[in-house]
Specification:
Elements lengths: L8 H24 L8 H27 L6 H14 L3 E5 L13 E6 L2 H7 L10 E5 L2 E7 L15 H12 L3 E5 L6 E5 L2 E4 L5
Parallel strand pairs: 1-3
Antiparallel strand pairs: 1-5, 2-4, 3-4, 5-6, 6-7
Helix pairs in contact: 1-2, 3-4
Family: Belongs to the adenylate cyclase family. DacB/CdaS subfamily.
EC number: 2.7.7.85
Enzyme class: transferase
């Protein structure tokens, strides 16, 4: 990830503490292996889940850092993603940064309104004619909706990505834009930057 003028020390302290807890759990498991009745499978799953939680927690901090120079509406974006995630409503939100996106997007429907959480959520309401495409954000404005993004052929391991995630990666492979994604299938939120996806634990 690129560097920004952010104070990462609070996040790093929190991550260190979580990693210490994971190491402690691993050491306990090593000691318990002398017991013939001890099963490692449950422990592996717990450690895996904890690592994933720490990763998404750190990603959420970076997300705030990367958005703050380009929009004052981080809270509105946070609330929107949280609410859509809880309702499992798919969403694709592009935040333009330095690079022009004019030649990378297939234009959708102009909006030209101030960015608010209620308005942004209404665009992605199931059944809305605009909900399938991407919303474009510039500074504190919703510029347009139902935009079509270039798709990536990237894969994450053996996992096949859905159209929204391929679109998010595709645009960020070609520009410095940051793209928020909510999965309609799982409700999980993530963001794409520089052609990579990062899970979001909470963007509150």
């Amino acid at each position: 990830m690129e560097q920004q003028d952010c104070d990462f020390s609070p996040m790093k302290l929190q991550v260190k503490e979580n990693l210490r807890q994971i190491v402690q759990k691993m050491n306990q498991s090593i000691q318990s292996m002398d017991n013939e009745d001890y099963c490692l499978l449950g422990t592996f799953e717990q450690i895996k889940e904890r690592f994933a939680w720490v990763e998404s927690q750190a990603a959420s901090f970076y997300l705030m850092c990367y958005l703050s120079p380009y929009t004052d509406k981080f809270i509105d974006l946070s609330v929107t993603v949280k609410n859509l995630s809880e309702r499992r409503q798919g969403a694709l939100i592009v935040i333009q940064r330095e690079d022009s996106l004019a030649n990378l997007l297939t234009p959708g429907t102009p909006i030209g309104a101030a960015l608010t959480s209620p308005l942004l959520e209404s665009i992605f309401f199931t059944g809305s004619p605009l909900h399938d495409g991407a919303v474009l954000i510039q500074s504190n404005q919703i510029v347009s909706a139902a935009n079509v993004l270039p798709l990536s052929n990237a894969r994450i391991g053996e996992k096949k990505l859905g159209t929204r995630h391929r679109a998010a990666i595709g645009l960020t492979e070609r520009s410095d834009a940051l793209v928020l994604v909510v999965s309609e299938e799982t409700g999980k939120a993530s963001f794409a930057l520089n052609g990579r996806l990062y899970p979001i634990h909470s963007v509150e």
